[in-house]
Amino acid sequence: MSARALTLPRILAVLAAACFVGAFALAVYFPPEASLRHLARMVDADAVLAVQEWTRVHLGDWALANVLLPVLMRPAWLALASIGAIFGGLALTRRSGRSVPGSPRWRN
Predict the structure, then answer these.
(1) Where do the H-state alpha helices sit in 30-75?
(2) Are 52 and 64 in contact (CB under 8 A)?
(3) Collapsed DSSP state (helix, strand, coil) of residue 53
(4) Comparing C-alpha atoms, which of 39, 40, 35 is closest to residue 52?
(5) Cα(47)–Cα(49) distance, rounded to whole angstroms?
(6) Which of 2, 20, 70, 91 could form a disulfide with 13 if both were Cys (CB 3.0 to 4.6 A apart)?
(7) Do residues 38 and 73 lie in contact, with contact meaning Cβ atoms separated by under 8 Å?
């Protein structure tokens, strides 16, 4: 059992906790229905347009219409909460270091 195998779930758990705290802060500080596009434009309006243009040029109009724009229209806290849920799931499903023998089978 290596030290790396033990620290990776901890790192993922810390990242999950940080994402959930950030999502909570966004939900409390801004109106809960504030979209990610609205908050990104508050920070830098040109960056949102640049990301949309880059997506259109490099990935195509389908990626802009079916992936990027729906994500930008969702509440801002939802993106961080989703990433936190992914990190949390990865932290929970990493091997705990115990070796599991072959898959259990029903024997009649």
Answers:
(1) 36-43, 45-58, 61-63, 69-73
(2) yes
(3) helix
(4) 40
(5) 5
(6) 91
(7) no
